[in-house]
Amino acid sequence: MKDGPSGRYRRTWPQRFVLLGCVGLIGASLYTASTVETVYDDVSSIQRIWVPADVLTDRTNVDPGEPRNILLVGTTENDGIDSGDDLLAGRGNALLADAIMVLRVEPDTGQAYVMSINRDIYVPSIRGKINGAVQFGGIGGLVKVVKEFLDIPIDDFMIVNFSGFRKVVDQLGGVPVYFPYEA
Predict the structure, then answer these.
(1) Which CA distances in Å does 17 have to 14, 23, 28, 120, 137?
(2) Which of 38, 48, 55, 125 is packed most tightly, with the most Cβ within 10 A?
(3) Residue burial 10-44, b: 16+ Cβ < 10 Å; e: rest
């Protein structure tokens, strides 16, 4: 529409709303693409660990509402930590499972339960402590030992090493520790 003596075209209000909507749609699309890329980068950086097919429970014919058991393992592996870091002072190089837990998720009730396994429990099948199973058989060996020891299926597992644990603590802003007396 021409407006005034100069003969310039001016946008009507409906045209302005359509233009503003298009700009908003482009902005939202760029934001969504950026978010998807960030999530993809984070997920693709997760290290995948191969274990033999017979280690984990076969879930192909299981009802989705059935409970799942997930093995959570915190290891002494120190990849990603500088060799001069104080965190490594006095530590050996043996790969052990410092923390072993089984997370049971009950989809029907929406509840989850965690059971911690004492790392010093003697396991006859390996003739040693349960935390040593990962040193000799890798994560697959530990999964097999836990399955046999507790007589439960293990559907999946997650491992966090020392470096990952440090990153979690840093993301939380540190963990305060209080002592009733001076150290």
Answers:
(1) 5, 10, 16, 69, 65
(2) 55
(3) eeeeeeeeeeeeeeeeeeeeeeeeeeeeeeeeeee
C-alpha 161/C-alpha 175 separation (Å) is 18
Q: Which two tokens stand for residue 95?
A: 């790969």
Lowest mean pLDDT among 96-100, 116-120, 146-150: 96-100
Q: Show contacts of 29-33: CB within 8 Å, 24+ apart.
A: none
Assess contact for 97 and 130: CB atoms under 8 A.
yes
Q: What is the distance, to the nearest Å, from the Cα of residue 126 to the centroid of all Cα atoms in its chain?
A: 29
For residue 175, the Cα-to-chain-centroid distance in whole angstroms is: 19
In angstroms, rounded to a whole number, what is the distance separating the alpha carbons of residues 106 and 103? 10
Contact by Cβ (8 Å): 128, 93: no
In whole angstroms, give the CA distance from residue 173 to residue 169.
6
pLDDT digits (tens, 9 = 90+) for 36-85: 998 888 777 766 676 666 677 776 677 778 888 989 988 877 666 666 66
Q: Tell me if the pTM is above 0.90.
A: no
> Residue 113 pLDDT more than 70?
yes
Exposed, middle or buried by CB within 10 Å (0-12, 13-18, 19+), for 71?
A: buried
